[in-house]
From TrEMBL:
Belongs to the class I-like SAM-binding methyltransferase superfamily. RNA M5U methyltransferase family. RlmC subfamily. This is 23S rRNA (uracil(747)-C(5))-methyltransferase RlmC. GO terms for biological process: methylation. [4Fe-4S] cluster binds at C3, C11, C14, C87. It catalyses: uridine(747) in 23S rRNA + S-adenosyl-L-methionine = 5-methyluridine(747) in 23S rRNA + S-adenosyl-L-homocysteine + H(+). One of its GO terms (molecular function) is methyltransferase activity. Pfam families: tRNA_U5-meth_tr. It comes from Erwinia aeris.
Length: 375
């Protein structure tokens, strides 16, 4: 993939862009094998590759410049803004949307937030595309509600220009820190859930719910989890840190009892909607802390699936899983280092399968799926 901004040293988000893709994969696989070198892995499966450009379904754009000439992108380490509207990681469809958003910002009078001066209103533009329909979710991250009426009044013209806008909201982030979004989300359209589908599973994305940014590789990840679980013949399963339910809903069958736990109420609302659409009657989802739920339960499922944030599942949950001793654990991670630490704590388990999914090409990051069996 060629990127003029990388060549000009204006953006280094793709740290490994100067390496051939095959070399990137080899290095990720080698580092993963080194991290798990203390474990006896029964089967190493080959890495799942990604498209090298146009694979992201989401753009997180810092808004800078002036209200008359806004820039959407990042702030360079020297403090100058960098426009990323032509970033090759985004699908081609995003370019036309960005082209309409810039004059819209001016018409709506949304002054870009100036970090140094602590002035202005519009901090970020967050754009997500449905891989199924091409419909869009657009979020304006504002410093306050001061310009909310102006934004609302200007929206009909933008919606006429971009009929693919299905979900629009404003997020209020008043803190002068590098925080992407605040707690308060204000809906600006009646619909607040972007419909998507990976494989044969309908999924919904709400403004504050997590969703994978590489849907093609995510579909492969979920399909692989389903295949691995189907070979085990399990009758009951927990899906901890379940997000919008992608893993659990792929693995569930009409006969299986599935409990999905996620701290985000927004994500749980999406997961419940998907389960209802699929007609799964023995599935339940709840907005709870995953560790608190697991350690407070008295029953033991056949399989526990965990897909934690980068910090991993931690010592407390590892200790409880070891004592609870479910026959199988399926661990998916976006941070191989914390995953390896957690697996080392699960000393009563052996690693059956390990597979790398290249969710984040041109970076050192990847998604890893592992299957553990109790000894």
């Amino acid at each position: 993939m060629h990127c003029a901004l990388y060549d000009a040293d204006r953006c280094r988000s793709c740290q490994w862009l100067d390496r051939p893709y095959s070399q990137q994969l080899n290095q990720k696989q080698s580092e993963l094998q080194q991290l798990l070198s203390a474990q006896a892995v029964s089967e190493w499966l080959p890495p799942v590759t990604s498209a090298q450009q146009g694979f992201r379904n989401k753009a997180k754009m810092v808004v800078s410049g002036s209200v008359e000439r806004p820039l959407l992108g990042i702030v360079h380490r020297d403090g100058t803004p960098v426009d990323l509207c032509g970033c090759p990681l985004y699908p081609d469809s995003f370019a036309a949307v960005f082209a309409q958003l810039k004059p819209f910002i001016a018409r709506a009078g949304l002054t870009p937030y100036n970090v140094a001066r602590r002035r202005g209103e519009l901090k970020f533009i967050l754009l997500t595309e449905s891989s199924r329909s091409g419909e869009l979710m657009l979020r304006f991250v504002l410093r306050s509600k001061e310009k909310l009426a102006q934004l609302t009044n200007a929206l009909p013209a933008l919606q006429a220009q971009l009929p693919q806008l299905s979900v629009i909201s404003a997020n209020i982030q008043p803190v002068h820190m590098a925080i992407l979004e605040g707690e308060e989300e204000i809906p600006l359209t009646e619909n607040q859930a972007l419909a998507d589908q990976l494989n044969d599973v309908p999924l919904w994305i709400r403004p504050q719910s997590f969703f994978q940014t590489n849907p093609a590789v995510a579909a492969s990840l979920y399909a692989t989890a389903r295949a691995w679980v189907s070979e085990l013949g399990v009758k009951s399963m927990w899906d901890l840190f379940c997000g919008v339910g992608g893993f659990g809903l792929h693995c569930a069958t009409p006969e299986m009892s599935l409990t999905g736990i996620e701290i985000s109420a927004e994500a749980i609302a999406c997961a419940k909607r998907s389960a209802e659409k699929m007609g799964l009657e023995k599935v339940s989802f709840a907005a709870l802390d995953s560790t608190a739920f697991a350690t407070g339960e008295g029953s033991t499922p056949d399989l526990v699936l965990v897909n934690p944030p980068r910090r991993g599942i931690g010592a407390a949950l590892c200790e409880y899983l070891s004592r609870m001793a479910p026959p199988f654990i399926l661990y998916s991670s976006c941070n191989a280092q914390t995953m390896a630490t957690d697996i080392a704590r699960l000393s009563e388990y052996t690693l059956v399968k390990v597979q790398l999914f290249d969710m984040f090409p041109h970076t050192a990051h990847g998604e890893v799926l592992t299957l553990l069996r109790h000894l």
